[in-house]
Amino acid sequence: MPGSYHDVTCLRQSSLWKRMHSQQQHLLFDCGQYLLGDSGYTSGERLVAAFRNAGGDKDKTDFNTCIAHVRIANEHCIGILKSRWHSLKEVRTQLKNRAENQYLVRWVRCCILLQNFLNWRKDDWTEVDGPIESEVESEVQIPAPLTPPLDERAMIAHGRRRRLEVQSECLAYMRNVNGTLAFQ
Length: 184
Description:
It is a single chain. The chain is mainly alpha-helical. It contains five helices and two strands; from the N terminus they run ααββααα. The chain has a two-stranded parallel ribbon with strand order 1-2. Residues 1-116 form the DDE Tnp4 domain. Its cofactor is a divalent metal cation. This is DDE Tnp4 domain-containing protein.
């Protein structure tokens, strides 16, 4: 989708969104896994969003701070990816059609897969070093049991409950003995 579309609109039009709310969600997430989103998103079973208005509530503010720190770590990961894969540093491709968009998505996916492979091997290879050769054993993954899709209202209610569960777990983990966040 063009860059002028809001992130939420892009997500809701994506195959990821459709799979997250279908019988196929077990192919995307293991038990207890979810995506984190900013306050522009609506929380769901597999998407936990920051609170739109913390309203002076310390727990909500602390939870939003936790999410912000995760987002910063994500930005650092993107920087690490670009430092190894120089072809990602300045992608100067105008996406004029679906085929060009798919090509760029495939390119980024390949870089991410190779990054993960090299991290797994504890290898400091970079794109400018030339080709590498290795064999990788495949892992067999057992799919999680199927769960029926929820209607929109039930999905929103479930998402709010899920966010509160994640908030509680996050704050319990991040707080130290004095009751303040460990990273402040």
